[in-house]
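Input.
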Amino acid sequence: MTAYRARLTETDIQRLIKATEDDDRAEAAYKLCRSMDRADLDERDREAAQKILRLLANDAAELVRRAMAVTLKASDLLPIDVARRLAADIDSIALPVISASPVFSDEDLIEIVRAGSPVRQVAVAGRPRVSRDVAGVLADVGCEQAVRMLAANDNADLSEQALGVIVDRFAASPEVVTAVAYRQVLPLHVTERLIALASETVREHLVARHAVAPETAIRLAQYARERATVDLVDQAASSADIGAFMAQLNLRKSLNASLLLRALARGQMTMFEHGLAELANTPHQRAWLMIHDAGPLGLKAIYDRAGLPPRLFQAFRAGVDTWRALSSEGADTSSDLFRQRMLERFLTQRPNVLREDLAYLMERLDQPQSRGSAAAASADRRRPAQAPLGSGRAVFGDLGF
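Output.
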């Protein structure tokens, strides 16, 4: 270490002192700072190095101070008084240190935020770690760009209260709303507030990625423009308690023949079972026995008890028979491939259903499949017993639409 100190003081420091050009001094400062940061310093050496850094921080040349700020921006070697001095310097020198230095306390960072400079607030918001206290102040007083950066920083500890403040302040900012929506973790009430504010694409992400209460999904699906975003069949299928979801649908008058036929055609048998049980006011186990009764009477009895339209019974009968046939072939009824094949086979039977329901099913049929699913579905379509099936639009043509 003695040799290191000698080399440090006799070579680089002399060059730094004697150099007259700013570029030369900045190069010497960079080399000096990099050497000190990489060296294994004991306490005495560390004190000596920090004295040198204090001298550099007072250098009149902007290039010298910037060389130090950039080189040591993430180093714990930088003394706190030097870090504060650099943070008060011009932006080109202050921003690297503000954005990364580990020596700042929360109080230091809060003071920087409250000073009100937008670019410095952004630098604080994008730090590798932003504590809850600092994040709360940014949420309260930060400019829009800083809050957007904060929301996009998953290493920022944003409390539920701070997230609420951000949504309150920037509800009209699509950029901030989107940044909040794409956070890895969101409280339920924040998610539901964002759904009402976000674009269609962001709303789709929220519904797919975060928990949404059944009431919210039902309410959103009642509006035509949200139908492509909030699909009650998908929401019910992903629910931890399908029975409770069906009860909520029934309570809100949204559990009907159309929804159950869509669910059945897409292979969501559990949803269909619970839906019929709810409408018929029958325990699920009894509904299951009647639906899967091999005879012709069980399904008809519970269907009539549920009060569903008689003219649609044959479509439901075809759906149950299709599901039973596929499952008897050993298919995994919980897989996406099964649901795709179920939908295709159901549609080849030319079901007598409403045009609105056909449009919905065709839209699902035309959704992209994985390569494996597409290949298997294609093989299934080539079975001799089935009519050939192309895209949803082709089937529309076959059905006379």
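The radius of gyration is 33 Å.
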